[in-house]
Amino acid sequence: xxxxxxxxxxxxxxxxxxxxxxxxxxxxxxxxxxxxxxxxxxxxxxxxxxxxxxxxxxxxxxxxxxxxxxxxxxxxxxxxxxxxxxxxxxxxxxxxxxxxxxxxxxxxxxxxxxxxxxxxxxxxxxxxxxxxxxxxxxxxxxxxxxxxxxxxxxxxxxxxxxxxxxxxxxxxxxxxxxxxxxxxxxxxxxxxxxxxxxxxxxxxxxxxxxxxxxxxxxxxxxxxxxxxxxxxxxxxxxxxxxxxxxxxxxxxxxxxxxxxxxxxxxxxxxxxxxxxxxxxxxxxxxxxxxxxxxxxxxxxxxxxxxxxxxxxxxxxxxxxxxxxxxxxxxxxxxxxxxxxxxxxxxxxxxxxxxxxxxxxxxxxxxxxxxxxxxxxxxxxxxxxxxxxxxxxxxxxxxxxxxxxxxxxxxxxxxxxxxxxxxxxxxxxxxxxxxxxxxxxxxxxxxxxxxxxxxxxxxxxxxxxxxxxxxxxxxxxxxxxxxxxxxxxxxxxxx
Length: 494
Prior knowledge:
This protein is an all-alpha fold. It contains 19 helices and no strands. The protein is about 80% helix and about 0% strand. Helix 10 (about 255-265) crosses helix 14.
């Protein structure tokens, strides 16, 4: 079993458990405890912090993935790479904090009418920016050391546990809302502190500079990659968060809160792929360095097929249970019904296109990847401006889905044109047909009296039918091997 598969399995376990905790928190507890404007506040705060944090990295996150292989030498402490990463990030943080303070009067003024709560808590974004960017750079450093699991554990599991505890303390009136916001920010800070401690324990936290190792050509290459990295990484985060900021600006925090909750259900589709993207990216970078196109084609094919199967399964399960979902949520969240479908379809298409973004981003054509992301930001802003005023939060979801579809199609065509890589075959058609049959079985199943029982039985039916047919038709060799391995381990315990 290779590095990608081993860590992807471990990472997926943490993500799966984290999803359950996140589902309980964001999908059930938040809507029942917090007001929609309070949910909107937390969402917009995080969105702003993520955008500023990515800009604060000055593109060095992308540079870490692409260039670390030239520094890799455990005996030489990786030639002071972490020192460079921390110094660049610190300069970026100072610059972005200056930008934030210059923008602050505008942000407060525009929030006073529709989102006064955001104006009240605008300064809470500052610590979120700092802890987010340092966690991100250290997580990527761990990732290029072929250990993506620790970052996944801290972000997808530990942080969500902490947030769940915080909201329960607020529910039992141990915390006021103001205190809850402070604790909520602390939930983002703790993983950053823990990852530093783990790096120190493993002997990887070395801040001693080795500037003599840096040749002029190496520095020139790193600066060039960082410049494009600013575009690539920042645009990626902007496209994921700009819709919530624009909804707040056009419709206010209450609509943002409803959209955020519905958006969460839609993004359940893509959560399992997070570990794959984190783990696969440095492997792809090394493959390009070694000019191993065979490995690239294998990763590309498997990422497309396996992610399509997983994404289909999750989306079918969500949409077959859509009426049950709105029995869990308060009535005002019904407005987000088709947000869930559109966002789910957008991310299913994203998963079905695999790691094409990483293939472009780690190749000599990485500037093209950055330009495509710039195009996506422009596209998503324009489509949001068109569709939000007309269709509200559903318009924002449609704008995201349309933009993702166009950009992923461009990536696919570029990879096919330049690298002659085409991952699709008849197995993808079989997977889609199995998905359709499984959904129809879940859709036409008679409704149970209690929605919890209905969710369990409907989901079990879909799982048995979808999983059984995927295994029977051997759609994915990886999934069949994993299933056989699980069966053999179970037999070993009996």
